[in-house]
Amino acid sequence: MIKLSDVKKTYEDSLVLKNFTMSMDRGEFAFITGPSGAGKSTLLKLLYCSENVDSGHISVDDWIVSKLKKRTVPFFRRNIGVVFQDFKLLFNKTVFENIALSLQIHHMDPKEILSRVKAMLKEVKLLHKSDIFPQFLSGGEQQRVVIARAMVTQPMLLLADEPTGNLDSDNTRGIMRLFREINLKGTTVLIATHNEDLYYGSGRRVFFLNNSHIEKEIVG
Amino acid sequence: MKILKYFFGTAFKSIWMEKWINLLTILSISIGLSIFCSFLLITFNIDSFMKQWSSSFGLVVYLDDEIENGKIQELETYFQQDSELSNIKYVSADEALDEVKTSLGANAVILDDFNDNPLPSTFELQLSNGLIDPKFVRQKADAIKKLHGVTDVQYGEKWLASLNTISDTMKMVAIFFAGAIFISTIFTTYNTIKIFFYRRKEELKTLKLLGATNTFARTPFLIEGSFIGIIGGTISAALIFTLSSFTTTRIVEFMPSVSVVLSPLPFQVYLLIPLIGIVMSLLGSFIAVGRIRY
Measured between CB atoms, which of B3, B202, B210 is closest to A77? Predict the structure, then answer.
């Protein structure tokens, strides 16, 4: 499903990833962890083409991500759901509109959008807040909106960057439950986090990223 | 079709949210187009007047007092064969005197002092439609003047030259304004759309991360630009129509004879103004969305 081999990525003078190699199977649920600045976010950005790789090979499903042409990138991104660290919610749109946006980008029928968004809102337990603007939601609720937006298109891959960063333990549990449910439906999930509690005891693969490469790989 | 709903929804939401900037842009466009249309209206009226005048514009060919009848016949045939001339009319000296007497009415007695008829025989010629270019008329008059039996050719040379100069000047001014307004409208829309673009830069970045194509992100801006243009153009068309009707009515009230000369702009032009507004604004929007990177 995901394959990275010999990937190199630098930001000006700083080397972020070097000889980076990892792979994930379809339907897998895995974590990537490491100290701040280790390159977790960069790895995810490379996977959803927000950053370009310096050298090496990246592929997701049948897409050769490292060789994607600029005009093909949007179509590739439609196969991926991303839970951004800074949420990237649109504050001039309601919860419903934020989630519907992903489907509008897919040129989906308005009736289909309505039913899918409603179902998704029900799943993340925010149906009663569909007409509210995101700034009036708590951090946990905003995070659930972001997850709903990422999932509503039923992507093959879900990438989450520090999805529980500022959440209390109750909210964290709720979010992780959502990810598990999503994974059970067949979506491959990769979560970047430095929160040990998320992966210890999860029984999932955990990649430890340090010094620009995978230092070790364990089962949490 | 389903995506159009999103495009129009997003565009009109933005139009409402940015209503003050949009209003200013619409006003700028409508003022610009109104200035241009005013010149168009004036030029159109001068042209229309020229056309009306040209239909009655003629040359008077004065003949030698001693000219023989055969020569007159020869000249008449010559004029009739010339496709650039029309309505050829021979006025003999006696007919000319009768006409003068008729027009003088009771004052015709002043002509009794003349022993002989002081008026010469003439040919009254009209030029075929549209051939009232001063240079052409002068050349024609000079050519006729050289004919045997012709003593002089007269026409409203100064009038013709003045009208022609005014018409040409107005056309040049209209072209200048058209160019200036075309550029300024494009620039105004360009700036407005660029401002909107920058204000929504974060939103656009998110859209792209969610898989939106450039077309998807940019189309609402183009719709917004077109809307600005069509409203600006419509206001301008309405303004010019109202002003033109009002001015015409007022002028005719004071000078009823002028009503024959005054011509309103054809209705199609009023339909064309909003379209011109759209084209200009769309062009400005295209340049704006094409140049900005996000």
Answer: B210
Measure the CA–CA gap between B186 and B188, rounded to whole angstroms: 6
Token look-up 């179902």 returns A119
Q: ipTM for the complex?
A: 0.90
pTM for the full predicted model: 0.73
CA distance readout (Å), A164 to A82, A172, A174 = 14, 6, 10
- Interface check for B259 against chain A (CB to CB < 8 A): the answer is no
- Pick from A76, A80, A104 the residue to mutate for testing the B interface (most B CBs within 10 Å): A104
All residues of chain B having their beta carbon less than 8 Å from the beta carbon of residue A48 are 209
Nearest CA in chain B to A76: B211
CATH architecture of B58-155: 2-Layer Sandwich (3.30)
Q: pLDDT tens digits for chain B (294 residues)?
A: 667 888 888 888 889 988 999 999 999 999 999 988 888 888 888 877 777 776 777 889 999 988 888 899 999 999 999 888 888 899 988 888 888 888 888 777 777 777 778 889 999 988 776 667 788 888 888 999 999 999 999 887 777 788 788 878 888 888 888 888 889 989 999 999 999 888 888 889 999 999 999 889 899 999 999 999 999 999 999 999 998 888 888 887 877 766 666 777 888 889 999 999 999 999 999 998 886 665
Structure tokens at B252: 């005719």
Contact B210 A102 (CB under 8 A): yes
DSSP B259: G
Same domain, A104 and A207: no
Is residue A172 domain-shared with residue A131, that is, in the same domain? no
Residue pairs spanning A and B at CB distance below 8 A = 47
Q: Is the dihedral of CA A105, A110, A115, A119 positive or negative?
A: positive
* Residues of chain A contacting B213 with CB distance shorter than 8 Å: 71, 74-75
Nearest CB to B210 within list A76, A92, A101: A101
Q: What is the CATH number of the domain that holds A29?
A: 3.40.50.300
